[in-house]
Amino acid sequence: MKLKFKRLFVRTAFLLCLSTRAAQLAVGDAVPAVAANDQHGVAFQFTNGIRFLLVVTEMAASKSANQKLAAAGAGFLEQHHAACLMDIHTMPAIARVFALPKLRKHPHRIVLVDTAEALAAFPAQPHRVTVLALTPAGRVEKISFWDPAGEPVAEFLK
Q1: Which residue stretches of the chain are H helix?
Q2: What is the CATH number of domain 24-156?
């Protein structure tokens, strides 16, 4: 009897955890509003003029992506109507002391997202940057994953 109860409890807890996770964005979904500041402390406003969102959720991918974006030039993201969102909610406070000044040196705008909930719906893959192509109305038109260590970014912003 105890074993059956334990199994039932574990299954129920597992299903409850699955049901409380945020649904992943899919093609056709509206992109949720993201309230965050960039590396210079300027508030980010998601507008319908943005055609691409680059979402970085890992440190290794962020370093490669920032190098490629910096090499592309200061106006590259703006020319492609793109915004780069970087997840920093797991970055320890001491690491931020060193990371933020380095981020300020990049010529492109990096929106620093500091809460897990803000990016919970965005799909992600290990070592990749999520690239969302958006419709003029702000809905997901296409989802792709960029490997900044080995692929040029321009191919993903077409």
Answers
A1: 2-20, 59-72, 76-79, 93-104
A2: 3.40.30.10
Nearest by Cα to 91 from 58, 54, 127: 58
Chain Cα centroid distance, residue 6: 38
Tens of pLDDT along 42-52? 999 887 789 99
CB 9 within 8 A of CB 17: no
CA 76 to CA 109: how far, in whole Å? 10
pTM, 2 dp: 0.82
Please say if the pLDDT value at position 9 is more than 80: no
The Cβ of residue 143 has, within 10 Å, a number of other Cβ atoms equal to: 16
| Encoded tokens for 79 | 């020319």
